[in-house]
Specification:
Blueprint lengths: L8 H9 L37 H20 L8 H33 L11
Helix pairs in contact: 1-3, 2-3
Length: 126
């Protein structure tokens, strides 16, 4: 199926972050939390050959570990709560942040892979 309009790299990535079809922007990209749909319900674009593999967890680790983790070192809460409570709080914050970012990172990767036409080729193992 062809897209009704030319989709730029940025637009496909943005639609993916929002969990929408990178082609039309209307259909859903995920059936569940991280389970991508085989094709768009709105425009019929096929996503079955797109595989993000480790790209989405890698992007999530980069963002959480290199952007938000330094904030934990800058914010000193030891005068408000004991150290064990602060560590528990930050662990919960980072776990929640990771769970929130992971589907958005996967959506962005799916949008980028779709726009660049980087589909997975079937491999024959003998």
């Amino acid at each position: 199926m062809t897209c009704p309009e030319e989709t730029t790299f940025r637009k496909a990535a943005r639609r993916g972050v929002l969990g929408r079809c990178p082609c039309c922007g209307k259909g859903r990209l995920f059936a569940r939390y991280l389970k991508q749909v085989d094709s768009c319900a709105s425009c019929g674009e096929c996503f079955a050959g797109l595989r993000t593999d480790d790209a989405a967890p890698w992007a999530t680790i980069i963002v959480v570990g290199h952007v938000f983790l330094p904030l934990a070192f800058l914010v000193d809460l030891t005068h408000v709560m004991p150290l064990w409570a602060e560590m528990t709080l930050w662990s919960g914050v980072f776990a929640t942040l990771s769970l929130a970012l992971l589907p958005r990172a996967k959506g962005m990767m799916l949008g980028v892979l779709w726009q660049t036409r980087a589909t997975a080729e079937p491999t024959i193992v003998s």
